[in-house]
């Protein structure tokens, strides 16, 4: 069901709204992220449309006048998909499609589509397929049926055209089948996790594209796929890492994102079990991203949802090489200083100071402060080890006391 072949960049427009809770600046930042998602899915954004609205129009999400602007642009520029930053109701989606006569994709579907495109293993593919069917189920009546355009491109890598006329029952059966299939794999995975013995488990979590896989590669000398697109990693990778003489398991996981579709959280539950069952969480943050504080909040919320928010956590602020505060010219007396103007040193004195030792500032790419990072991880893992196996204490001296041969990895 999931097609793998590469597609040409598809012309798209983005549509977002500005509300009381979401001012123009926020809305722009969200659309930046949506544009990155669109690019990752294989689309090119020709134009953004925004509208000030207190509540979205129940029929067409944005107002009639604005929709007419969009329609004209879509027609004149041969646009393949109109992408909304918010979740659309099945009815809204249908209505808008009738007007625009192109694919209408919301943020949730876009993310599902990227996952479908990127899923490598049969396990990840099954999880995505399940999430796609669950998204599709309430939308079954007439989704995209009136479209006579070519197939393929954004939003077409899932259960699409062929299933549309199919009975809901068939989709429900399919959902049940996929759930059963996942249950079997889940059991195997859980046994595998059990077999890993008593090694301390550490997981890398964080917003998508913050550098988790890059850090994994640096620290474990492994070769996990990393790239500057969203959701480069869908399957968890577990590596045995040895710092000095202390072995532990390090897991690289799928990145999180604002408004991660609930269908995905649900079907990736067991991928996330890896995080839930870990002893230590390394929360990686891209400090060079203007929205990094909001990213932290999104990640914490998802950790909470999966029941993993009470783990010992180290905050790792990555990409310090790329961090550039906004500057205020000396003769500029109008611009107010905001956190966007903070230097790294100033950041370190904010709330980050309160987490004290549990905040690290690194560059995975330039290997800056990686030694501090290794030391910190060593000490945390050692602490967990000693608590769990008090008699083994003598095996693992303080990081600086260790004089034996330094082994990086096995
Ligand atoms: N400037 C800079 N870029 C970095 C650093 N670490 C990683 N990157 C880049 O950030 C991008 C994303 O890196 P990944 O390691 O794939 O990020 P990830 O968190 O695993 O992403 P997902 O798997 O998509 O969630 C890549 O282009 C990396 O080269 C860093 O310290 N500095
Ligand atoms: Mg990754």
Structural notes for this entry:
With about 400 residues, the protein is of the alpha/beta class. The chain folds into two domains: about 160 residues, Rossmann fold; about 200 residues, P-loop containing nucleotide triphosphate hydrolases (Rossmann fold). The protein contains 14 helices and ten strands. It has a six-stranded mixed beta sheet, with helices on both faces. It is globular. The C terminus is likely disordered. The site of guanosine-5'-triphosphate has 23 residues, from helix 8. Monomer. Associates with the 50S ribosomal subunit.
Number of helices: 14
CATH topology of the largest domain: Rossmann fold
Bound molecules: guanosine-5'-triphosphate, magnesium ion
Question: How many whole angstroms does the radius of gyration measure?
Answer: 23 Å
């Amino acid at each position: 069901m999931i097609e793998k072949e590469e597609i040409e960049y598809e012309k798209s427009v983005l549509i977002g709204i500005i509300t009381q809770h979401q001012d123009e600046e926020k809305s722009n930042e969200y659309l930046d992220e949506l544009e990155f998602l669109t690019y990752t899915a294989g689309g090119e954004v020709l134009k953004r449309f925004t509208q000030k609205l207190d509540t979205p129009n129940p029929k067409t999400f944005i107002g009639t006048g604005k929709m007419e602007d969009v329609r004209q642009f879509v027609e004149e520029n041969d646009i393949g998909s109109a992408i909304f930053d918010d979740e659309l109701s099945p009815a809204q989606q249908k209505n808008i499609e009738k007007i625009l006569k192109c694919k209408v994709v919301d943020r949730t579907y876009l993310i599902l589509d990227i996952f479908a495109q990127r899923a490598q293993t049969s396990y990840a593919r099954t999880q995505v397929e399940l999430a796609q069917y669950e998204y599709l189920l309430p939308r079954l009546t007439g989704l995209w049926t009136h479209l006579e355009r070519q197939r393929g491109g954004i939003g077409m890598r899932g259960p699409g055209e062929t299933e549309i006329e199919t009975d809901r029952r068939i989709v429900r059966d399919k959902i049940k089948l996929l759930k059963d299939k996942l249950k079997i794999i889940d059991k195997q995975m859980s046994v595998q996790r059990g077999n890993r013995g008593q090694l301390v488990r550490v997981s890398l979590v964080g917003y998508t594209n913050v550098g988790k896989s890059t850090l994994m590669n640096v620290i474990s000398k492994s070769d996990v796929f990393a790239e500057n697109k969203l959701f480069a990693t869908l399957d968890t990778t577990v590596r045995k890492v040895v710092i000095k003489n202390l072995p532990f398991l390090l897991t690289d996981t799928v990145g999180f994102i604002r408004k991660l579709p609930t269908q995905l959280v649900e079907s990736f539950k067991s991928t996330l079990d890896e995080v839930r069952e870990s002893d230590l969480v390394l929360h990686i943050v891209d400090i060079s991203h203007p929205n990094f504080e909001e990213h932290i909040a999104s990640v914490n919320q998802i950790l909470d949802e999966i029941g993993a928010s009470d783990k010992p956590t180290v905050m790792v602020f990555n990409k310090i090489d790329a961090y550039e505060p906004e500057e205020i010219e000396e003769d500029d007396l109008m611009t107010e200083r905001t956190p966007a103007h903070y230097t790294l040193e100033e950041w370190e004195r904010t709330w980050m100071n309160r987490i004290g030792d549990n905040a690290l500032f690194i560059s995975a790419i330039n290997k800056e402060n990686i030694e501090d990072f290794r030391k910190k991880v060593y000490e945390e893992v050692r602490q967990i080890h000693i608590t769990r196996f008090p008699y083994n204490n003598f095996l693992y001296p303080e990081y600086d006391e260790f004089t034996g041969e330094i082994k990086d990895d096995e």
